[in-house]
Structures are given as structure tokens and as C-alpha cells.
Specification:
The complex is a heterodimer. Chain A is α/β, with parallel strands linked by helices. Chain A has helices spanning 14-27, 117-125, 133-142, 147-157, 160-180; strands at 2-9, 31-36, 46-54, 69-72, 92-96, 111-115. Helices cover 41% and strands 19% of the residues of chain B.
Chain lengths: 181, 394
């Protein structure tokens, strides 16, 4: 089982991102659970969302304490939250930032993947909303879900032109990772 | 075979209500309400469901509307949680006392104050004696399927008792997972239309819930109790029939998970049962004979079935997600009563867990089984009621 923890702020769409990852995994023929951290929801406050993916039905229903992958929507969260807490050895942190992986203090302990998702989103969507954009990086860096399934799930989540724009944004993030890897 | 969707427990219940062809849904749509009734109102507004949605100004009125609607012979549903359920309490007695088979989903949330919206079972357990059948589920799939089973049992003419399906807040209500949505035709075979013998009708006036003197009142209560008790076997039959027609069943009223040869058994209700099955399997891989009795039906209490599941154990633990203040967890009391009624005395301990949404992990459950193994070796429980995961015990 692969466990993913998403760090965002209230209103940034962390839960939606977790549900999209789960939906894509399910479209790939896997089992998944996606859920919010069961905390207070306030716009701007640090929030968590989780996704578990497995090739078997998932019975464990507790929250995720030892993630394999952490996704950080907002670099500013690093100063208020320990995003690597409980992260498994050899785990991965995907951060939305203008910086490079080696700029982060925990870069020697875990694999760090960086993406300037805000810039990609501003260009594709005209808004600094990164929750689907960064999933392109997640898809490229982890291979846990297929790109086609991810695009399909995003289009189902956001109808019409908004879905198309979100797909463009995540494809760009996917390309940037593949190009740079 | 229907379709598979990645949905949460709220939506799963809404699908169940739609497939059951409920005709009246009355609900108060504000906190602590969940998405269940919002999803149903969407089904109605987009024409997928042929029902009347009655928006009301409180849960008390929601239950009043459900009571009245059910008196006209309509298949009726509502949903609520925590304080909303408590506010319904008075009208819940009208539906049960008048034998109206309303079905209600209660998303289990803790009671305020201190202010909370998170999971525990204090809300539904507090309404235990309101004359409603209560059933608890462990997954979104079970929530959907059981919602349909609720109507089947509630409307049975030997039962005619309202049913509350209880599903854990967040862990089930707000968690997306893969759910099979049955075909309408499959459910239509399982659940025929509701046709009560007595209903209010302007052309055939009758008085219901009339004043009843001491010479008759007690007989009403006696027959209510008999109807309720019949629900145990009828639920087992309904679950079997659902299995035959739809392909899924849930072990009747008590799911016996590897209890037959188990030395140590936990009794759980709700979503915790799911995690506990994982723990049972991992303990068995290490040679510990662990089992799990998942209590689905809480009222009527299936005392014979729970005794059958537990009778060979050396030590049992009952996990309560609520508390009868000044005593112990209510499920623990009931399980002990069931054993006593069967001349059986097994050392047991009551674990109070997860109040107000505190997460209960596989490690917590493992520690409970460790405790039971310790009791098994020593022959008696030292402390009957234990709070698990208190900040002070860390």
C-alpha cells in the first residue's frame, strides 16, 4: 500500500487533489481511500488530506502517520508544519516552489522533487491554484497512477473548459519533470 | 451488475435511498447535517429520483414531517447527526410508538459541549431507548447496502419499527472509496413497494396516537417489544436474501470474523471493525488466535448471536465509542448481560476509545489484544473500564 499526505491551506483544494489521485488509481484498477484530516476547516489555515492506494481492498481506516509521499502545495507551510514528520525512509516530498531540491534542509534524508506549480497554474488557468497542476508532477515522479487516468479524472471533476485548462496545467508539470529527470 | 464509483459514505447512503425508491425525504439542511440530504435533493432535482424533498426549520420538525408522511403510507427517509438527533428525540418516539417504518441515517458525531463535529457514538447510543432499531456499518459499501436492508426490515408487517442506520462521521461519511452501485432492477426484486394496512386517508378518516388509558397502554408497549425482537431473525433473512439477489451480505446481525477457534476476541461496532480485521489477520500470522465479533445490530440486541460468537473465548474486550457516565460503555453492559443470560462468565475488559474523533489506530487495537492475552494468562481482568489513548497515559 502506498500512502500519500497532502499539505495545503484551507481553500487550496487539498481534499480535491486527494480524491483525484484516488479516482485515477481506481480508474487504473486499484483500490483507494481519499479523505481529509478530520480537523477544522478555515480558509488559509494549514490542512491535511490523505490518499491510500493498494492493489487490494483497504481495510485500515485510521489516518496516515507514515506516508510514502508528501505533497506540499505552498512552500510557506514549511515554516509552520514539519512536512517530513513520519515520512518513510526513502520517501518523497513534492514541493511547489521556485527553489531547487538542494535548497531544502532535509534533502539528504528523502527524495525531494520541486516544481514551480504556481507559475504553471498562472499561465494555464490564470490563477495561482496548484492542486491539479502539482498532480502532473506527482504522476511523473511516482508513476503511481497513469497520466491518462489522471487526465480523465480531472475532466470528470471539472466540467468543460475548466477541466481542459486543468489538464493542460498538469500536463505541463508532467513534461517539466520528465524533461528534467 | 451495476456501476462502480469512487464516492464517500454520504453519497453511498444517498444512492441507497434512491435505489430504495423513498418517496418523502424531510430534513434540516444545516450543521450538523451531512451531504446525504444534499445529494438526495440533487437526485430529485435532476429527475433521477421521484420523491418529495421537504425542507424544514429544525430536526424536530424533520422527524414530525417524516412521522406524518409515513402515516400516509409513503416510504420516508431523513438524515441527521449529533445535536440534530437529540433534538429529534421527542418525535422519534412518535414514529416508533405509532409503528411507522421511517428510515434515518445518523452520521455518528460526538455531542457538544465542548463544541465538536467529530466521530463517536454518544449521539445514537443516547437515543437507544427511543424504540428505534439501530444498525452500524463499517464501509461505504455496507452503508449503501444496509440502507436498502433497513427499509426491508422496518416495513415488514411483523416489525413495523423505524430504523436508524449509523455510520461513522468522517471515517465513513467523508472518505471516498470504491463502491458498487447495484442495478435498480436488482433492488426492486429485493424491496417491494411499501403498502401498509393502516394509513391516514381523507376518504377514510381515523384517529391515530389517541389518548390511551392504563387499561390499554401497556399492551401497546408489549407488542412494540415483540415487533422489535422479531427484527433479529428478519434482519438475518434480509441480509441473506440481499446476498442472493445482489451478491453481498454482511454476516447477519453479528459478523463472526475468525471467532470460532479464537482465544481472545474484541467486540466492535462501526468503522473500527474494518481496521480490527487487519489486526486479527496480522496477529494470526504470528500465532495468536484472535477474533472479532462485529456487532451490526445494536437494538434489538442480538444476545444469542453475540453469545455464540464469544462463548469459546478465554478473554474478551468490548470496544465502546461512547460512555454511560457513572458506569461503563453501553455495549460492554449489553455483552455482559448476554453472557449472563446464557450462564457464561468470560473475563472481559471495556475499552473506551475514540471519543470526539480521536483516531484509533491498528496499534491501539493491537495493544487491546495484548491486554486480552495478558488476561487470558492470568484468568481475570484487573481493571474493567480502560480509556485508550488518553493524553495523560502517554
Amino acid at each position: 500500500m502506498q500512502q500519500i499526505r497532502i499539505h495545503g491551506r484551507g481553500g487550496q483544494g487539498g481534499v480535491t487533489a486527494a480524491v483525484i489521485i484516488g479516482g485515477a488509481a481506481v480508474a487504473d484498477g486499484q483500490y483507494a481511500q481519499a479523505f481529509p484530516a478530520f480537523g477544522a476547516e478555515r480558509r488559509g489555515a494549514p490542512v491535511l488530506a490523505f490518499c491510500k492506494i493498494s492493489d487490494r481492498y483497504i481495510r485500515n481506516r485510521s489516518q496516515v502517520y507514515n506516508p510514502d509521499i508528501v505533497i506540499v502545495f505552498d512552500e510557506g507551510l514549511l515554516s509552520v508544519v514539519d512536512v517530513t514528520a513520519g515520512l518513510k525512509e526513502g520517501g518523497m516530498v513534492i514541493i511547489n516552489t521556485e527553489k531547487k531540491a538542494e535548497d531544502f534542509p532535509f534533502s539528504n534524508k528523502v527524495k525531494i522533487v520541486t516544481v514551480d506549480a504556481t507559475a504553471i497554474s498562472l499561465k494555464a488557468l490564470g490563477k495561482p491554484i496548484v492542486n491539479t497542476t502539482i498532480l502532473g508532477t506527482f504522476c511523473a515522479a511516482t508513476g503511481l497512477v497513469k497520466l491518462g487516468s489522471l487526465k480523465k479524472t480531472v475532466k470528470e471533476t471539472f466540467a468543460g473548459p475548466l477541466g481542459e485548462k486543468n489538464v493542460m496545467a498538469l500536463e505541463e508539470a508532467y513534461r517539466q519533470y520528465k524533461g528534467g529527470a | 451488475m451495476g456501476k462502480r464509483e469512487f464516492i464517500n459514505g454520504n453519497n453511498a447512503v444517498a444512492y441507497g435511498v434512491k435505489l430504495a425508491r423513498a418517496e418523502i425525504v424531510a430534513a434540516y439542511p444545516i450543521t450538523p447535517q451531512t451531504k446525504i440530504v444534499e445529494q438526495i435533493s440533487e437526485f430529485i432535482s435532476n429527475g433521477e429520483m421521484n420523491a418529495e424533498f421537504i425542507k424544514v426549520e429544525s430536526e424536530h420538525t424533520a422527524m414530525s414531517a417524516c412521522y406524518a408522511a409515513s402515516c400516509t403510507g409513503a416510504r420516508t427517509f431523513t438524515a441527521t447527526s449529533s445535536q440534530g438527533l437529540l433534538y429529534m428525540f421527542e418525535m422519534m418516539q412518535f414514529t416508533s410508538g405509532q409503528r411507522r417504518p421511517v428510515v434515518m441515517a445518523n452520521v455518528n458525531r460526538a455531542i457538544s459541549p465542548p463544541w465538536t463535529i467529530w466521530l463517536d457514538h454518544q449521539d445514537s447510543i443516547s437515543t437507544r431507548d427511543a424504540g428505534w432499531i439501530q444498525i452500524y456499518v463499517e464501509s461505504a459499501q455496507e452503508a449503501l447496502d444496509t440502507t436498502i436492508q433497513c427499509f426491508k426490515v422496518a416495513e415488514n408487517k411483523e416489525v413495523l419499527t423505524p430504523v436508524m442506520i449509523c455510520l461513522d462521521a468522517f471515517v465513513l461519511s467523508h472518505t471516498e472509496e470504491l463502491v458498487d452501485i447495484p442495478e435498480q432492477a436488482e433492488i426492486d426484486r429485493f424491496l417491494p413497494p411499501f403498502e401498509p394496512d393502516y394509513k391516514v386517508d381523507v376518504n377514510r378518516p381515523l384517529t391515530i396516537a389517541a389518548g390511551t388509558a392504563p387499561n390499554l397502554y401497556m399492551e401497546f408497549r408489549f407488542t412494540q417489544q415483540q415487533g422489535m425482537l422479531k427484527a433479529i431473525n428478519l434482519w438475518k433473512k434480509a441480509d441473506e436474501e440481499f446476498g442472493r439477489l445482489v451478491g453481498r451480505s454482511y454476516g447477519g446481525v453479528v459478523e463472526n470474523y475468525k471467532c470460532s477457534d479464537a482465544d481472545v476476541i474484541l467486540v466492535t461496532m462501526g468503522s473500527l471493525s474494518s481496521t480490527a480485521k487487519d489486526v486479527v489477520d496480522s496477529l494470526r500470522e504470528q500465532g495468536t488466535r484472535a477474533g472479532l465479533a462485529k456487532l451490526r445490530l445494536y437494538r434489538p440486541f442480538p444476545e444469542k448471536e453475540i453469545f455464540d460468537a464469544l462463548k469459546s473465548a478465554k478473554a474478551i474486550g468490548v470496544v465502546d465509542r461512547s460512555l454511560s457516565f457513572g458506569f461503563e460503555g453501553s455495549v460492554f453492559s449489553d455483552v455482559k448481560a448476554a453472557l449472563y443470560n446464557n450462564n457464561c462468565c468470560i473475563p472481559g475488559v471495556n475499552f473506551i476509545v475514540g471519543l470526539g474523533g480521536r483516531d484509533v489506530t491498528a496499534d491501539d487495537l493491537k495493544k487491546m489484544y495484548d491486554k486480552l492475552q495478558y488476561i487470558q494468562k492470568n484468568g481475570k481482568a484487573e481493571q474493567t473500564v480502560e480509556f485508550i489513548g488518553l493524553r495523560w497515559s502517554e
